[in-house]
Amino acid sequence: MRIALREVSPPSPCGYLPDRDWRMEHLRVESITGDEYQCLMERGWRHFGHWVFRPVCEGCQACQSIRIPVATFQPNRSQRRIIQANSGNIEPVFREPKVDEEAIELFDRWHHHQTEKKGWPEHESGNYASFHDSFVDQPFAVEAWYYYLDRKLVGLGFVDTLPGALSAIYFTYDPAILPRSPGIWNVLRMIEEAKRRGIPHVYLGYWVEGCAIMDYKRKFMPAEILGPSGRWIPAT
After folding, report:
1. Is the same domain home to 218 and 176?
2. Where among 41, 61, 81 does a domain terminate?
3. How far is CA 122 from CA 8, 90, 109, 193, in A?
4. Is beta strand 201-208 parallel, antiparallel or unpaired with respect to 165-173?
5. In terms of domains, do 7 and 76 share one?
6. Domain membership flag for residue 101
7. How far is it, in rounded angstroms, from Cα 234 to Cα 204?
8. What is the sign of the dihedral through the CA atoms of 72, 220, 228 and 195?
9. pLDDT tens, 114-155?
10. Does 47 fall in a domain?
11. Based on the domain organization, do 147 and 220 belong to the same domain?
12. Quick one: which of 43, 69, 16, 64 has its CA closest to 220?
């Protein structure tokens, strides 16, 4: 692993818990292998493109890394309904990430929906350079999962393919299929694909108790969280 830059951001309003501040430690990596990144991820780090990061907030450890042991996962009733509705209808096609007009149009459509419904910042449409830097220029193997319905692209996920894990990076979808719970379906398909490939874990990034947008992650049970001691323990 070659590190080009290491920095710690100053405190700023937390994006998960509005009554707190957060600080992030960032590493800009020139090169890193999948094995090296998995070792970091198992210790609570995440990556977005060539940036590897972790929270280093003073007096707060609310961000907990969460993963799913795929061998013991059992879908709940709601998840079984989602499987029944989408299985065989919306399935991923696995590709290498690339600058793709169809994908960028989907990303723009989804982000504009988030702006209208959740107050996200305005998004510049058709920004090919930003899309390339965020999703295509990767330091190790990443897959783009293209989901189609009636030959139309309706979902796109980016997934790290690591020696012992699949790890969710980002997922975007057509707002028109929101009733099909596309985000949950993407995680369910990751679990199924990990089982098929003989991969033991699916990583979902951070879970933050009290953050409503994170609640779905604790519904994939049994799950494990990274405890303060650095050991993975069952989520309760």
Report:
1. yes
2. 61
3. 26, 29, 12, 35
4. parallel
5. no
6. no
7. 15
8. positive
9. 887 777 777 777 788 989 999 999 999 999 999 999 999 999
10. yes
11. yes
12. 69
